[in-house]
């Protein structure tokens, strides 16, 4: 009988421990949720947005090994609309230009800090070599005859968020700008006929 009573006591103690643990977890989750809600109401975060101002092609040619070499210069505007949030653009940010599913060139986004409600102009140089250059060049030339060449400009930027004096962990801003340009002629001003950009944050 004493052994049975001891077993019941241990079982009751374990049950209480589990209840306390679950209760503590619920309380912690509630505190975290409330803190996140308060921060959201105080800082009212908005996703930064970007626009493509101009696109210049410095070089677009076939190499002797039949790869396609491309050099683009892209001017973009980065807009931080937040009133109380600063953005640290960290090392490793990339900007790339694609035609259909083929990457033509890629460049690095500079490391810098963007204050709240700030608009920053960026000039990014992109270079790249692509396999099957002759086929791709022929396709681009045929597309150019229509005066409407679809390009996809992709942004991948690691950033850290500044809330007041607090610098938070790194996030990634992922962006996609679907462009339609009138020409791929080198060293000429290219007209951007259409631009549709979308952005999101990735934890």
TrEMBL record:
Membrane topology value: Single-pass membrane protein
| Keyword entries, A-Z | Membrane, Transmembrane, Transmembrane helix
Q: Where is the signal peptide?
A: none
- Localization annotation: Membrane
Late embryogenesis abundant protein LEA-2 subgroup domain: residues covered: 76-165
Q: Which GO CC terms are listed, alphabetically?
A: plasma membrane
Tell me which Gene Ontology terms the entry assigns under biological process.
defense response to other organism
Where mainly found?
A: membrane
Source domain of life: Eukaryota
Q: Which residues cross the membrane?
A: 20-43
Record bears the keyword Ion transport: no
Q: Which Pfam families match?
A: LEA_2
Q: What is this protein called?
A: Late embryogenesis abundant protein LEA-2 subgroup domain-containing protein
């Amino acid at each position: 009988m004493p052994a049975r009573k001891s077993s019941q006591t241990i079982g009751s103690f374990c049950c209480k421990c589990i209840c306390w643990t679950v209760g503590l977890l619920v309380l912690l989750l509630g505190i975290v949720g409330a803190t996140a809600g308060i921060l959201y109401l105080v800082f009212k975060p908005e996703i930064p947005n970007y626009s493509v101002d101009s696109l210049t092609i410095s070089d677009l040619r076939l190499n002797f090994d039949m790869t396609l070499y491309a050099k683009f210069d892209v001017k973009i505007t980065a807009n931080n609309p937040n009133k109380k949030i600063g953005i640290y653009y960290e090392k490793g940010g990339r900007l790339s230009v694609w035609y259909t599913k083929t990457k033509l060139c890629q460049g690095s986004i500079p490391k810098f800090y963007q204050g709240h409600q700030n608009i920053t102009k960026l000039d990014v140089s992109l270079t790249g070599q692509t396999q099957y250059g002759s086929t791709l060049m022929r396709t681009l030339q045929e597309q150019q005859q229509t005066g409407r060449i679809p390009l996809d400009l992709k942004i991948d930027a690691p950033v850290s968020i500044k809330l007041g004096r607090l610098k938070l962990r790194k996030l990634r801003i992922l962006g996609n700008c679907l462009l339609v340009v009138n020409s791929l002629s080198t060293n000429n001003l290219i007209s951007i006929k259409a631009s549709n950009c979308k952005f999101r944050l990735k934890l």
